[in-house]
Design goal:
The protein is of the alpha/beta class and about 300 residues long. It is built from nine helices and ten strands. The longest helix is centred in the C-terminal third of the chain and has 18 residues.
């Protein structure tokens, strides 16, 4: 009997959703960073075995939105919850239960599919602390399974898959054996560039950035990429470029290095910065940048 199903990975910002997806696939499919709202799209990660296909959906962190982009990110997560066969609610075990967690649980209150609590970052807790976390969360929701893991350390990931498989239903193979994600190389390249911006900038810059690929040429030995980094204000453009172009050079070099490792060829990356005032609140601009706005 072949089993298959869609598993949503939902949680608050910085709970480790993307790190979990990458650990499950043993490959970097989704970018990660310490900044909230790193993930902006529902990203599919596919694991296919002889008798099962797991389709994981990494979602943006559910949060209180302050602009149209934030509302769009939440809608992505809500859609994944509704369409899932299993919901993974992932939490940062080092953080206390709060109002954001209550809001998250309210979104799955009427869910009729199995819901797992994935307790992440257990490598940072003592056994006593972990037991306290487990006891606390059990009082808030009747989870189908509670599974402690460390996505970063790859602890309990195989056990998680084995338990998850028990809840999959008999079904078809939706995707080819070799397919690991629903996002193409262009998406991956733009996300790698945005990841480097997230790591290297502070304050409001990370949340105000979008990346658009302008031109790509690829040969057997070389990859050439031109990309535009969009910001909301002229002051942000100045910070992103940096004194004597030091910041943009640092971002370019970091992205170029990862792209070279990923594609196994020489990479030339050219970056430009453009101001699009208040783009996160403009429906037309959100649509143009790939963040479809339904309002």
């Amino acid at each position: 009997m072949f089993k298959s199903g869609f598993i949503s990975i939902i949680g608050r910002p910085n709970a480790g959703k993307s790190t979990l997806l990458n650990a499950i696939l043993n490959e970097k499919i989704a970018i990660t960073s310490p900044k909230p709202q790193t993930t902006r799209d529902n990203i599919m990660g596919i694991v296919t075995t002889e008798d099962a296909q797991f389709i994981f959906i990494d979602t943006p962190g559910i949060h209180k939105p302050h602009h149209r982009l934030g509302k769009h990110l939440n809608r992505n997560a809500y859609q994944a919850i509704v369409e899932a066969d299993i919901n993974f609610v992932i939490i940062d075990a080092t953080q206390p239960f709060g109002s954001g967690d209550e809001f998250l649980l309210s979104r799955i209150a009427n869910s009729e599919v199995p819901t797992f609590l994935i307790v992440n970052k257990i490598d940072l807790l003592s056994k006593e602390q972990l037991l306290h976390v487990l006891k606390e969360w059990q009082t808030h929701y009747p989870f189908t399974e509670i599974i402690p893991i460390s996505a970063l350390k790859n602890n309990n990931i195989q056990e998680l898959l084995a338990i998850c498989k028990n809840y999959l239903q008999e079904g078809v193979q939706y995707f080819p054996d070799t397919m690991k994600s629903d996002h193409d190389a262009h998406f991956q390249i733009s996300e790698i560039i945005r990841e480097k911006v997230l790591y290297k900038t502070e304050e409001e810059i990370p949340h105000s950035v979008a990346v658009v690929l302008e031109h790509i040429e690829e040969t057997e030995k070389h990859l050439f990429v031109q990309a535009m980094i969009i910001v909301e204000r002229s002051s942000q453009k100045g910070i992103l470029i940096g004194k004597q172009a030091s910041m943009i050079r640092s971002i370019r070099m970091a992205a170029q290095k990862e792209l070279k490792q990923r594609y196994g060829k020489n990479v030339t990356l050219e970056l430009y910065v453009r101001v699009e005032n208040n783009w996160r609140n403009r429906s037309s601009k959100l649509t143009q940048l790939g963040y479809g706005d339904n309002e």
